[in-house]
Amino acid sequence: MALAVLVSIPIGQVPPLAPLLSPFQGFWQNAYSEDELAVDQWELSGLTEPVEVIYDEHLIPHLFASNEEDLYMVQGFVTAKHRLWQMEFQTMAAAGRLSEVVGIQALEFDRMQRRKGLTFGAEAGLTYIQEEDPETFALLVAFSDGVNHYISSLSDARLPLEYKLLGYRPEAWSPYKTVLLLKYMADMLVGDKDLEFTNLRQIIGADWMERLFPDFPFENDPVIEASQKWQFKPLPVSKPENIIYPDSALLVDPIPAPEPGVGSNNWAVSGKKTRSGYPILANDPHLSLNMPSLWYAMQLSTPKYSVKGATLPGALGVISGFNESIAWGVTNATRDLRDWYAITFKDKRRDAYLYDGDWLHSHQRVEEIKIKSESSFFDTVIYTHHGPVVYDDHFRSNGQKVNFALKWTAHEGSNEQRAFLDLNRGKDHDDFIAALEYYTAPAQNFVFASTSGDIAMKVQGKFPLRWEGQGKYLMDGSNSAFDWQGSIPSEHNPATLNPVRGFVSSANQHSVDSAYPYYVFDPSFEHYRNRRLNKRLSEMRRISIEDMKALQFDNFHLHAAEAVPVLLQLLLAEPLSFTTAEEELIKELQKWDFYTSPRQQEPPLFAEWWSNLEELLWGRWKEEGKPILYPNNYQTTLLLKEEPDSEIFDDPRTPKRETGSYWVQKSFKAMAKEIQKQRETRTLTWAAYKQTSIRHLVPNFHAFGYFDIHTGGGRGILNATSERHGASWRMVVELGEEIEAFGIYPGGQSGNPGSKFYGNFLQKWAEGSYVSFNLLQQENADQALLIENFKPATE
Asked: How far apart (Å, rounded) are the C-alpha atoms in residues 730 and 265?
């Protein structure tokens, strides 16, 4: 009896064990694959016509509906059937509600999400759609109805396993959650270094900031080719005189930003460069590698169009994909769209703040954060016209008296959902451009190709109209001279159509060169993948689909190819004694071909050497409690090559004058010691050193993830697979008379760890293979793994 009681009550954050162990509703009921429990017929209230869903051998659903409202209702149902927990968990993370399901350990994360204003932005977005686009809002409602029909059909036995382990049930879906999910993508893909830059400028001075962090690199290879002539008259931007920045040490912990060196690739080649004479488009967005997989593959068909590709569970339509006429894909445009303002409040009540000599009223937003098994936490967030005050005496101030407000394009009302719906329906380049008019954030490089032969690229988002240098550092919120002066018109965003070189491409590099008339800045632009990609595309002729697949999986390490000769030259520039083991390491590096296949043993040497060098060079600037930013790999390599005796390499804390050679030699010795230590216990291949893993969205659920994946690539490499990031989706589409398409992602269609479709794509993804992704015709239902029919509910 005591045991029965014990397993029937929760212990802290752990749910009761009895339901979990029950053979009728516990985790045993999740040990199935979807084809084993197929339901032939579903009845949905609100559906107007029958909808057929045909699943192929990979569990990819192909939906056939008579109209869009029915189509998106069933998309909601089908997506929830396979990814319900993921959909809800991600929106709870976006909304700052994880404490409700995992407990107090998520409280600081939830507070940050609320203070960043994601829910505020989603509310503004939903209001905007309701008022400006009732057609899209109706489709959002239909999708939500489909999700909720599935939720209402769930028995305790069929609840996704994570609900059972965490001890809660799903709540109703709504259009707000879809909008919130798209805002969450904006949050995942934006970063800023304003606070780190502010600290670093105080340490090394403004002149060195300009030299180490130039707006454009020496060797710029932008998204829109440098020969582009801008056919518009730019809006005027006035730069204020005598700019005075707030200039105190900042001890706050910055908002997490995307990891350096990861990103995405997309490109399209025209028919004149392909073997078939048809355009080919490729896209591989790089994001965190998680289970369930970020994307859910699907085909959506009505009598007017059929579209197929990667959907984002919880959002309508296809995000990266193709239809019978066009294909498109996305990469992050890597633009600083967040700025920070120091706010001066009138008094402790914080209901008024200084602005151009007057006191403006602020607004309070009280956030109730519910905590599992504990009382709610109430957090008061102050809003100014700049945005929410993220950092203050009550949050991450680290003892400082700070009030920093965040201005961010994601706070504004927008309609990204409409952009993707219109892309799904698109027929040509005009439709492509028209669809992007609805797109605000996160800023993306949209690649395009069509069966008519066009290829194109547009850098799309809502970009602030800034004066030169604006947004690099913490700004004075009491001075209107620091305000944004509007937005760059969408038609002035960089774009190209059918360029002479025969291809378009992006890999998170600079959008443009310095001739572009608007100020463009971001500290995290890519400098290697883009140059490797453009070099290969320029060289290639008679390109095939297989060539494009190989290019997505290209493992050449351009940074190493440029840096290793410089490092070896500096290493050997001055007399230095080496052990026999160290001499062998030098020989290995000298013979390296700079590829990073999983079995190679040279890449760990460079990775370890560069990591030590970077920390020795720039870690000297660290001062206790002050976050800073290191110069990027490109600038560091260039400085070592061109100015190895520069004063920047001297450590003023020592009596001698250090040079680049000194730090290269010291870091080599540290690398050799670490590599020899690791080689004593194992064969140190690149895969073993890198240890790529794909983990469950709940980090503690180790059994639901995959570890030590045997694959190559890495940061700054086209195959950008690092420890926890990489190609979340790979797609290649040839737009001929009959479209031929291939796709893959690291995981599987199912969100159920007990299903054979949970991780069945993983091995193919790791080795660079694909599955056929052609459009399925409804009459080919005889090829189906299973078929489900949805009918209007009878009264």
From this structure: 9
